[in-house]
Write a structure and sequence with these properties.
This protein has 123 residues and is an all-alpha fold. Helices cover 80% and strands 0% of the residues. It contains 6 helices and no strands. It is globular and about 45 Å long. The relative contact order is 0.12. The mean pLDDT is 87.
């Protein structure tokens, strides 16, 4: 999970125009928001690694995914209106957000497979 967010966050800096293009028109400051969201993803991905910051990082990832949800809904609406052949991708992105939220939720627990496995590996 950490690698996913770090890689995605770095991609915001490597390909910012991709992320700017998918942002809803009603959101201001596309460029700065893309860079800020990329920075958040990198830091939250890094903070998933230490057990001491894992729960907080996972909780903030859940919040971030909820904040990003309107962007994915807007992408779906735009794809629908433009009759995009990639509409199916945008449809799948919505449930994927909930899968990612569920995955992050697993890291917010004090006990559980994600918490205990990393604690055992550290010992």
């Amino acid at each position: 999970m950490s690698l996913l967010y770090i890689a995605t966050g770095i991609n915001h800096f490597v390909h910012p125009s991709f992320y700017e293009a998918i942002m809803p028109s009603w959101m201001p400051w596309h460029g700065p928001l893309v860079l800020l969201s990329g920075l958040c993803e990198v830091f939250l991905g890094l903070f998933l690694l230490p057990i001491a910051t894992r729960r907080l990082s996972a909780s903030l990832i859940i919040l971030m995914l909820i904040v990003f949800l309107p962007v994915h809904v807007q992408m779906l609406v735009d794809a629908w209106h433009s009759q995009s052949p990639n509409l199916w991708v945008h449809i799948l992105r919505i449930p994927l957000q909930f899968v990612l939220i569920w995955w992050a939720k697993q890291y917010t627990r004090q006990t559980g497979v994600f918490y205990e496995a990393s604690a055992v590996a550290k010992a």
